Amino acid sequence: MNSDRDRFKAFSNSEQENTSNVVRRPKVGSDMERFDSRSPKANEQTRVTQVSPRERQVSKRPPAQRSKYQDDSVSEPSRRYQRAKREWRKRISGYPSKNRSFQSVPDVLWSATKKGLKVILVLFLIVAVFIGGIGGGMLSGYISTTSPLEIIDLKSSDGATVIYDNKGLVVQELTGASDVNREYVSITRMKPTYIDDAFIAIEDERFEDHRGIDPKRIVNAVAGIFLNAGNPTHGASTITQQVVKMMSGADERSAQRKVQEWERALELERRLSKDNILELFLNMVPMANNLTGVQSAAKTYFGKDVSELDLAECAFLAGIPNLPSIYNPQTEYGRRNGMRRMRIILGKMYELEMIEYDEYQEALNRELIFEVDEREEGDDVTSYFVDAVVAQVIDQLMLQRGYSYNLARTAVFQHGLTIETTLDQEVQRKAEASFQKQELFATNYEALPDIPEPPQAAITIVSNEPATRGEIVALVGGFGEKTRSFIFNRATQAYRQPGSSIKPILVYGPALETGLITAASIFNDEPKFLDPQNPEEEWPHNVTRQHYGLVTARQALQQSYNTIAVEVYTEVLNPSTGLSYLRRLGIDRTDEPHPAGALGAFGRGVTTAEMAGAFAAFANEGLYTEPILFRRVLDSSGNVLLENKPKYDQVFTPGTATVMTSMLEGTLMNTSWITPYAELPNQTAAGKTGTTSDQIDVWFCGYTPYYTAAVWYGFDNANGRRT
Question: Which residues constitute the domain of residue 133?
């Protein structure tokens, strides 16, 4: 350290001595001569002992004005010292000093280019780190929010799923393992055939090697998108990823979903063996015509067990899941397409050395014989209530447990579940008997030639008793005797225009609750112009096309005056307030705030189940309870899979509910075709009717202290006629 300091001082002193011997002069000669100490000419010009008179005169000139940036506090020796110090640092660091005036144009350009490249590189690194940090953070966030994949035992239970009523009595047993549409088989029964190899060859040739995701397959799929105008040549999902989709029901539509799918696939590979994963896949894969799994497909299309399939049949079945509707073996078009895909799969199997050349040629020349498995419809037809409860259980398994649709349906039909429902069998039998009475429907279709189709009907009945409040005790989804299971259920699936039956829950109930009207509020029934699209045209019209002058709100509801209902809805209450109350009553139509809503004119109608639940709030002192069809679902071991706890909302005060009940009592007594049935001993009965144009839809929603019911009568299509 001392030697370095001594050398530095010696260097500094020598620099000062050299500088003191130089007389500063105007520029003489070239730059090279001026700075090259070895040049004789330079020595002659710089080392002199005498100066000429001209030079003496120049030297006497006043000094140049000092720059404002020049620091007076820094002396010239000090500056020389600093320069010497910098020069010394350059020498000992290996970077010699360089005079910039000696640089050529290419040197300058190259230097500038290097600096520019350095700046660009630094900026690129900063941006890359920033984006990488964001991407890494997003990736970490996606993974951290991935819910664990629930793996359930898909093997068919020996016991059928049993459905119980609200008293614990058996209502129905579902099919269990005997249902060919969803029959489960173990991988050991499939291994002797080529079914596993055929699926691996066409779906995921590196299945045995990857850990759930296949990076090479992902890259090829992305490249295919760019090389084929946005259409990938094949998918990037491995068999493991497809199992994840089947079990979770999540079909990726975003980067987050895809990352979470990858994470679940890795998790599945950690938890299950390759054979277990392949077994799940082969039992859950869709095989067209509402068939699930290779066993059901083998029996339906070839009339044999999966363990009896030959090579060609295995290859044909392996081609179906790619596009089930295109390769459907039950159509001639599908068979031709399926045979072409079968040849592709056989070629892939030969390429991967799964089969020998002789086997490949023999399978290509094999003539497939397709058989249709003739299955008779079961005699034990499910009721509309059972249809509805099965649909709700499947929905809740998907919502609460994260099952896919196929997985949830398989669980209901194959896993020996116990479903505790809200069904009251006595009420259900009476409702079904009423819907089978021809005299309650049109009886002489020949006398009504303008009716293009027979009328239909639906009903939902909800309990009002405190212990079972909100429970659906009965429902019927169609007229006449039910001959097939799981058909269209009008009670829960038919969305129809409610007509004037919407007025109590959308208009008058909310207006009473907010204090904007009372039952005695006076309104003028006169021609009104309330259509914002046609302000000069009279609208709405009463059914009678007449006007009745001053009337109370009670009278307007009892007589179902459309003019007053629209006036209260648009000018007293406002649609947004009315729709917010309707949403709290279980009917969300907040995206349709038009005036015609006061008359039930919604783009999407309502179901009898929705209307029964909404009207039940008036029967329960303003308390809305979301209607339910089951209480609990247990697995085959008695563990609770689902528990349907009631959801409540105090939409109206008891006072408002009492006033509305009083108003609706009068409405019921003023309806001629209902009055004979409305006089019930020692109990209140209240309700409201509703109709649409040409009576395509006819409604009645009413209640007693014990039950609330909503009934729809009309036509499936909007081309019915008045009957």
Answer: 103-145
